[in-house]
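Re-running the complex after MR caught last week's input typo. The corrected sequence lines follow. Everything else is unchanged.
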Amino acid sequence: MQKEIRIGLLGLGTVGSGVVRIISNHQEELYKQTGLHIHIDKILVRDTNKKREVPIAPDRLTVNAEEIIEDPEIDVIVEVMGGIEPAKQYILEALKRKKNVVTANKDLMALHGAEILRIAQQNRCDVFYEASVAGGIPILRALTDSFSSDRITKIMGIVNGTTNYILSKMSQTGADYQETLEEAQKLGYAEANPGSDVEGWDAAYKMSILSTLGFHVAMNLSEVDVKGISDVSIEDIELGKKLGYEMKLLGLAKLDDQKIEVSVQPTLVRNTHPLASVNGVYNAIYIEGEAVGETMFYGPGAGALPTATSVVSDLVSVVRNMKLGVNGQKMVAPYKEKRLKTDDEKYAKYFLRMVVADQRGVLAQMTQLFANNHISLEQVIQQPYNSGNRAEIILVTHEAAKSDLEIALATMKEMDVVSSIESCYPVVEA
Amino acid sequence: MQKEIRIGLLGLGTVGSGVVRIISNHQEELYKQTGLHIHIDKILVRDTNKKREVPIAPDRLTVNAEEIIEDPEIDVIVEVMGGIEPAKQYILEALKRKKNVVTANKDLMALHGAEILRIAQQNRCDVFYEASVAGGIPILRALTDSFSSDRITKIMGIVNGTTNYILSKMSQTGADYQETLEEAQKLGYAEANPGSDVEGWDAAYKMSILSTLGFHVAMNLSEVDVKGISDVSIEDIELGKKLGYEMKLLGLAKLDDQKIEVSVQPTLVRNTHPLASVNGVYNAIYIEGEAVGETMFYGPGAGALPTATSVVSDLVSVVRNMKLGVNGQKMVAPYKEKRLKTDDEKYAKYFLRMVVADQRGVLAQMTQLFANNHISLEQVIQQPYNSGNRAEIILVTHEAAKSDLEIALATMKEMDVVSSIESCYPVVEA
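Corrected-run output:
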């Protein structure tokens, strides 16, 4: 067997530069861990003349992907360019040439993971993608290896740093969404075009990957209920706090009675729950297993070096497997039948806030409406609303079916005494 | 290759019963994960007639270890009997007969891990021991696989559930140590003879294992500074809370300038630090790596099923390796030179409380003493003491060398104005 492992790196942005830096700074560790020297042979970039943060010999850069994919000397492809195409085509081409792959590409793995993993297995290659979910937190390995003997029943995650930064900042400062988003953009925690983060799609990709691995089913992104944070008001955050909750963009994947639901939505989390104190750009994933009970994994969700740590640790696993000649042989494809819950099987507690006419009997009318729809109430607060002879009603329900809640909300909207339904969030207790 | 993997189980106590239960309840999962049926063939017990919590055919029980160790049909030994001997002898004998081993035995791995792993490697066998540290938290795999590309610089752990239960209960109720210990014993959270837990030894074993894996050195138990919780007073817990700290029995392993210190001691942890809110019998391990930054792993530290989950997940790894014929080939033995810090290289903040004569100039004398010993103070509180014309002085220092602190303490003890030094704890900030 060779003495050196040659890597082809696709992409030299933030994560790619981190990978270069770790591989060059940690040569001793990598050699001791694998018994082989790991060497970055060629790097695909868009512009070979661009000034780079990391020192790289110019002859290692190329704009031509074929030079890397088709090079028989290259053993492993590390894909950190992001996006679906051409990343997907490069990866499939590399696998067909028996090159192992490490990728940080969550969009690609969420949308085309099943196909990529199947082709990897056919070619006896590894495809590892730890860095695609929650940057430096080794959550995929926990699901595939550490809990391999257990039955996972729930995965709850704060898996998007941008939205967690915005929501925890709003909670701390009392500033509103727009102002906080702009500050996050200035600080580089939110992108100029923040849609994929704030609308919940980034988190949905990650929850789709996590639930596929945790529940052994092939989840599709379209099966994730997604709601972003752009409508979250500072009023709701502060009302939530008074009631003992923190607002989080929470990914939830639940298995009850062999049926699954997966969602990403702004959620009020009881402040004694371990997830409630995860602030700023940190991520955390809370897992419940039948045997293990409650566990939580906390760490940096993004950033060049944390994400690159996951990439290079995957690379170490690939190289160890290469030495033993066992690449692509430990993969467990989804083997369970996927049964999704219907809305009448999805149960949650809810927080609701509405503005109503301040007249006798309205509260009774509202509570009756909930009772009629099989929803019982845990807390009811009525308080004066700041304008126009109206009152504000805040409700926290007991566990209720989503279908019942939706009927109640639709009925309320039609009622003359109801001026507006301001907000509706699921509630998670500790 | 065979269709079935035969297990010999040594011990059928709490964890052993959990292993039997998971293997029998999760046959489908185990088969899907490994492609093989996993079957417990024989179980070593002390008394074959004892009534058991789990249903087991009596002919599978034996009091004779040789029947298991020497049985050529048995592929894997699962050791959950605990203690050093005869567990060690059984494991070594099994390895020499090319049987793979999964163990939950922290004492054994902390004291004789190096020898056992060396013999395992000679015989191309796996020895996995995830369950030996922090029950259901997959922390060993995180250190060996997930952070394999990083350089770990700090490991802080709440790794003993009994002491964490006692300290968090004291903090919540204001009851004293003795009363809380007795309650914990009644509830089964502390043993009748709680020495190994409350004196910090159980945690020291675990920190020795964690620092061996994290720093790639062969740590000895005797190199861990250990102090238990039996002297922790409710006064200090409450004073700490007022200053914004929670008292925890904290395992600390730190690498600075290639030099190591490992300790287990009651420590005041800033209440915004993620470890401060780990309460009750839960465990958590906080890890800092040069590249990954801060991460934390939280979960149940003990209990039949959580611990058994780790055991059976290790078993899955063994079986996957057996299928591929690669047992015992991924182990990375400690490869770094071990250099331990001397006391003048160990830096920490400290909390001190002492009772002094209530007379003019005493505070000045004390603060001068610290200054003379290169210790600067962050906070100084003087308050009346409840008896005998004395005052209580509470100090929080800036980072100071342990050697300087010890000289200061020794000098203080000799001073006429000092009635007693009530307490001295390291302080960890967020």
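None of the earlier attempt is carried over here. The domain at 142-300 of chain A is CATH 3.30.360.10 (Dihydrodipicolinate Reductase; domain 2). Chain A touches chain B through 54 residues (CB under 8 Å).
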